[in-house]
Amino acid sequence: MTTLIILSVLPLLLLYLGLFKANKTLLPVSVIGLLVGLGFAFAEWNANAQPIFSGMMLFDRFSVAFSSITILSTVLILLLSKGYFEKISSHVAEYYAIILFALAGIIVMVSFHNMVMLFIGIEIMSVSLYILAGIRKNDFASNEAALKYFLMGAFSTGFLLFGITLIYGASGSFNLEAIRNYVVESPREISPLFYTGLLLVIVGMCFKVGAAPFHFWTPDVYEGAPTLITTFMSTVVKTAGFAAFLRLFSACFATLSDFWAPVLLIITVLTLFIGNITALYQQSFKRMLAFSSISHAGYLLFAIVALGSASASSVFVYASAYSVASIIAFAALILVHRQSGSDSFDSFNGLASKNPFLAFTLTVAMLSLAGIPLTAGFVGKFFMFSEALNKYQIWLVVLAVVNAIISIFYYFRVIIAMYFRTTDRGEVAVPAYYTFVLGLSAIITIVIGVYPALISDLI
Amino acid sequence: MESFTNAIQSVPLNHYILLSAIIFTIGVIGVLLRRNAIIIFMSVELMLNAVNLLLTAFSVYRGDAAGQVFVFFIMALAAAEVAIGLAIIVMIYRNTNSLDINVLNRLKW
C-alpha cells in the first residue's frame, strides 16, 4: 500500500520540480523515489496478507513480486532516458510524471481484489500511455501510433466493461472472492450471462496484452511510438497485463477451465504462429521486436491455459527474463539509431568490431529472447513448457518448440549482422548510464539463467 | 426513491439486457465501419454508455449500490478519455488537415 502512495505522490512532486525549472533533479528524484517504493514493497512481503479497503486491494506475495519487477524495469528504463526527452521538448517533467502515473496504475492492476480496481488500474495505465505514445507532436508516425492506440484501447475497454457488467449481473458482486464463491457453490446453475461475460473479458484482456487475433494494433503502435516509450510498453505494461490476466483467472474462474481453456488454447497457438512468422519478414529491428513481443505474449499465455499453483511463478520468471532482455535490445536500438538514423538490421552491421561490449550484451539479450540455455529466457520457457506438459498438453508444447526454433532465425539475424558483416561507420557512442543498464541487465540475464532458484520459488 | 425503483423494475430485466446489447453492438459496428476519427470515438462512447445502462439496471434489480458506484467510475474515466482523445485528434488534424483514418497508413496495418 505504501508503495502505491509513494508512486502516486512522486509524479506530483516531479510536476512541481518541473514548475520550478529544476530539470537536473528530475531523474535522480524519480529513481530514488522508485527505489524507496521498491523498499516498501519488499517490507510488505507477507504470506498471510488480508484484503484491505473493504476488499478492494490485496497486497499479497503475487502483487509484491510483480510490483517489484515492474518498478525495477521502470528504473532501468528511466536511466536510459538521460538526455532522451530533452530532444523532444523542454517540458521534461511531464514525461517523467506520466510514466510514473502509468506505473501507479500498474501497481493497482497487479494488486486488485475487486473488478472495479482492475478497471481503474487498467485505465490509469492506458490513458497515460495514450499520451506517451504521441509525445512527438510533429512526427507523423508518433501521431498515428497515439491515435491507433487510443481508439483500440478505448474499444477494448468497452469489451472488458461489458464483460465485467455481465459477470456482475450473474454473480451480484465485483469482489473476486464473491465471484469465486458464486462459481464454486452451484456450478450447474451458472447463468449464461456469466459465460458471455467471461468471453468478453477474455477479448478485452487479449486486446490489452496484444494476443492474436487482437494484436493488429501492436506493431504499428510499437513502431510509431518513441523507442523509449516502446520499451516501457513492451516490458512493464506487458508484464502488468499478464499479471492482471492471471490474477483474475486464478482467483475467479479456475474451476471453469473446461469452458475457457479451449478458447485461450486457440488464441495461444494463433499468437505464437502469427508473431513468429510475421517477425521473420521484417526489415526493421524495431518492428521485429514488436512482433517478437506478440510471440512472447503467446508463451506467457501458456501459464493461463495450463492454470495451476505454479502459474504465478512461471509468469514471473518469464516476464522478468523477457523484460530485462528487451530493455537491452531497445537500449542498443536507441544508441544505433542515434548514429545511423535508421532502425533496419543493416545499421547493426559490424557493431562487434567497433563496440564489442554493446555487441556482447545485445547477443546475450537475443540468446535470452530465443531461449538458449544458460540465459534467463531458457529458464522462463522451461517453466512454461513443463507446466503445460504436466497438464498433458503435449501437442501445444510441440507447436511452441517449433515456434521457438523459428524465432531463432530472426534473433540471430542481428547477431550475424553484428559479428559477420562489415561497415564503414565509426564507433557508436555509449553514455555511462547506458553502459550501466546494459551491463546490469546482461548480468541479471545470465545469473537467472544459471541460478533460476533465485527467483523461481518466490511466489 | 421507492417509486423510482419500482418504475425501473416494471420493465423486465431481459429487456434492459437486450437494449444494452443492441446499443453496444451499434457502437461496435460504428467503430469497425466508420472512417472518421470523431465518429469512431462517439461509437466508443456509445459502447460505454450501453454498459452504464446495463449496470444501473442490474444494480436496481439486485438492490446493490455497487453497480451504480461503478457507473460513476466509468463516467469519470470516460471523461478523462475524452480529454486525451480529443487532444490526440486535434494533434492529428493539425498535421494532416483530415480526420479520415485512411490517411493513417504510413505504418502498415
Automatic annotation (TrEMBL), chain A:
Key word Transmembrane helix present: yes
InterPro entries: NADH-Q_OxRdtase_suN/2, ND/Mrp_TM
Classification lineage: Bacteria, Pseudomonadati, Bacteroidota, Sphingobacteriia, Sphingobacteriales
Catalytic activity: a quinone + NADH + 5 H(+)(in) = a quinol + NAD(+) + 4 H(+)(out)
Originating species: Mucilaginibacter roseus
Entry protein name: NADH-quinone oxidoreductase subunit N
One Pfam family this sequence matches: Proton_antipo_M
Chain ranges of the NADH:quinone oxidoreductase/Mrp antiporter transmembrane domain: 114-407
TM region positions: 62-80, 92-110, 116-135, 147-170, 190-216, 228-247, 259-281, 288-309, 315-336, 357-380, 392-412, 433-454
Family matches, as HAMAP family: NDH1_NuoN_1
E.C. numbers: 7.1.1.-
PANTHER family: NADH DEHYDROGENASE
Automatic annotation (TrEMBL), chain B:
Transmembrane segments: 13-33, 40-61, 67-93
Name of one Pfam family that matches: Oxidored_q2
Entry EC number(s): 7.1.1.-
Location (main, coarse): membrane
Keywords for this protein: Cell membrane, Membrane, NAD, Oxidoreductase, Quinone, Translocase, Transmembrane, Transmembrane helix, Transport
Function description: NDH-1 shuttles electrons from NADH, via FMN and iron-sulfur (Fe-S) centers, to quinones in the respiratory chain. The immediate electron acceptor for the enzyme in this species is believed to be a menaquinone. Couples the redox reaction to proton translocation (for every two electrons transferred, four hydrogen ions are translocated across the cytoplasmic membrane), and thus conserves the redox energy in a proton gradient.
HAMAP family referenced in this protein's UniProt entry, alphabetically: NDH1_NuoK
Subunit: NDH-1 is composed of 14 different subunits. Subunits NuoA, H, J, K, L, M, N constitute the membrane sector of the complex.
Protein name, as recorded: NADH-quinone oxidoreductase subunit K
Lineage, broadest ranks: Bacteria, Pseudomonadati, Bacteroidota, Sphingobacteriia, Sphingobacteriales
Gene from which this protein is expressed: nuoK
